[in-house]
Each structure stands twice: as structure tokens, then as C-alpha cells.
Design a protein that fits this description.
157 residues; mainly alpha; Helix Hairpins
Length: 157
């Protein structure tokens, strides 16, 4: 006695979600139908973080400064790449931190929960550790040529 399961009729919401062809993201769970839309959603996340998260703006500015300074100091391509990778990692973790905070806030709403605090604190700690490592690496790579440039400038006066 095998029972056949008949396919269920799609709900009205599923029908609307699959037939809507507008590029506007009206439903947060809607699947991107092409690569361009996926990049658009990713850009929306970066834009949101830049507009609303002070720390993300700080990380972008410091990362841009570190890369600019490394180009100005004529660091090797590998050294510039290392600074770029560590800066990018800090920004990526800041985006993940923002996402985790949003999901936790959505879940617990306006109530306090110890597990929500742990999740938020650990996500923030991940950003902090990556930022400290990025500062250490940038210091190791940027300080010697920067100090040499300053010393040369002082001696030429």
C-alpha cells in the first residue's frame, strides 16, 4: 500500500513571489534570478552598513588610508595585498556583526536575553580581534618605511 503524495497547490504568496518580475526587492526572502540582482543585493548591504554603522565607516576610512599610504611608500605588491586582505577581512566581519545584531534584534525584539548578549558580544569581539590584527600587520609593514621617510626628510633640512 503505497500512498502517492500529490503536489500541493502553491499558495497565493508563493504565486505572487514567483510571478513578480520587478527588480525591486519587496520580499526579503525573494531569490535573485540572476547574478546582477545578487550583486545589487550585496551592494544594498554594503550601502546600508556604510549609512548606518559608524564603525563600518571607520573601518573603510582606515583601510583606504592604509592602502593609500602603502602605495605612497612604494611597498611591494605582496605587502599591499596583505594590507588589503586584512582590511577587507575587518570590513567583512563588521558586515557579519551587523547581520548578527539585526537577526538577534529581530528574534528577541525589545527584551533582554543572555544568549542574545553572548551572540552580539562574540560577533563584536570577532571584529575587534580582526581589527587589532590588521593594525598590527599594518604597523609592521608601514612603520619602517614611514619612519625612514620621516628621518630622511628631517636630515635634508
Amino acid at each position: 500500500m503505497s500512498q502517492e503524495i500529490s503536489p500541493s497547490k502553491p499558495s497565493r504568496l508563493e504565486t505572487i513571489a514567483t510571478t513578480t518580475t520587478t527588480a525591486k526587492r519587496e520580499l526579503s526572502w525573494r531569490v535573485a534570478h540572476n547574478l546582477f540582482i545578487s550583486f545589487k543585493y550585496a551592494w544594498c548591504g554594503i550601502s546600508y552598513a556604510f549609512q548606518t554603522q559608524r564603525n563600518f565607516r571607520i573601518h573603510v576610512a582606515v583601510g583606504a588610508l592604509a592602502i593609500s599610504l602603502s602605495v605612497f611608500l612604494h611597498l611591494s605588491t605582496v605587502e599591499i595585498s596583505v594590507i588589503g586582505i586584512t582590511s577587507g577581512l575587518v570590513m567583512a566581519l563588521e558586515l557579519l556583526n551587523t547581520a548578527i545584531e539585526a537577526v538577534v534584534d529581530l528574534t528577541v525584539k525589545q527584551t533582554y536575553h543572555e544568549l542574545a548578549k553572548i551572540a552580539k558580544d562574540c560577533a563584536a569581539a570577532a571584529v575587534l580581534i580582526s581589527a587589532l590584527v590588521a593594525v598590527l600587520i599594518a604597523g609592521i609593514l608601514l612603520l619602517p618605511p614611514l619612519l625612514a621617510l620621516i628621518q630622511t626628510a628631517l636630515q635634508s633640512q
